[in-house]
Amino acid sequence: MFIHPSAKGDAEASYAGITLKALTQGGLIFVVGAALIYLGRAAAADLTLSEWATSANRICDQGYERIRALNIPADPAAQFRALPQTTQISTEINQEIQAIGRPSGSEANVDRLLAMASQANVEARREYGAWSVGDTSNAQAAFSQAQSLSAEVQRLDGELGANACALGP
User: Fold this and answer.
1) Letter string b/e over residues 25-38, b meaning 16 or more CB atoms within 10 A of that residue's CB
2) Share of the chain above pLDDT 70, in %
3) Could you tell me which residue, 104 or 30, shows the higher pLDDT?
4) DSSP string, 15-63
5) CA 138 – CA 130 distance, rounded (Å)
6) What's this model's pTM, rounded to 2 decimal places?
7) Angstrom distance (rounded) from CA 33 to CA 36
8) pLDDT digits (tens, 9 = 90+) for 17-33
9) Mean of all residue pLDDT scores within the chain
10) How far apart are CA 35 and CA 41, in angstroms?
11) How large is the C-alpha radius of gyration of the chain?
């Protein structure tokens, strides 16, 4: 158990208020923290693109199953009304994929993919908000931006081997 650094025994000397015990405890905390960071990076560096894609596909399959379970009719008005639920699920999918880590050699592509997927959700929510208050011109602009970003996300998903993600719900 760690003892507060300012607590010292009768025979414990200090220099400028720093004891040997405090240096030891602080050093131990530093070493443990550095080791955890190193091991986390080493584990992420060992992730292959194939492993990443397999995990991403599993996450997308599960998330898209949740979207399909909403039983949203094919008409555009029903799909629009479901945007709050579908963008929430999409955001959760992106967060889970973010937690996988980055495959060695494809870090920048995965970062770009996740950033665009997040921005597509933001634009879809902006579309919903604008339309809900009658601002059709901003709703249309947000819709166009969301569609464009979503198409690029699907293209990148396919290039990275996340084919289930590329297909969408």
Assistant:
1) eeeeeeeeeeeeee
2) 73
3) 104
4) ETTEEHHHHHHHHHHHHHHHHHHHHHHHHHHT--HHHHHHHHHHHHHHH
5) 6
6) 0.70
7) 5
8) 565 555 455 544 554 44
9) 83
10) 10
11) 24
User: Is 141's pLDDT higher than 90?
Assistant: yes
- Distance, in Å, from the CA atom of 84 to the CA atom of 54, rounded to the nearest integer, reads 28
Q: What 3-state DSSP class applies to 14?
A: strand
Contact 22, 30 (CB under 8 A): no
Distance of CA 68 to the CA centre of its chain: 22
Place of tokens 């760690």: 2
Which tokens belong to 161?
């081997």
pLDDT at position 144 over 80? yes
**Cα maximum dimension of the chain:** 80
Q: In whole angstroms, what is the distance from residue 119 CA to residue 131 CA?
A: 18
In the predicted model, what is the mean pLDDT of residues 71-94?
93
List Cβ<8 Å contacts ≥24 apart for 133-140: none
Six-digit token string for 47: 């992730």
Would you say residue 89 has pLDDT above 70? yes
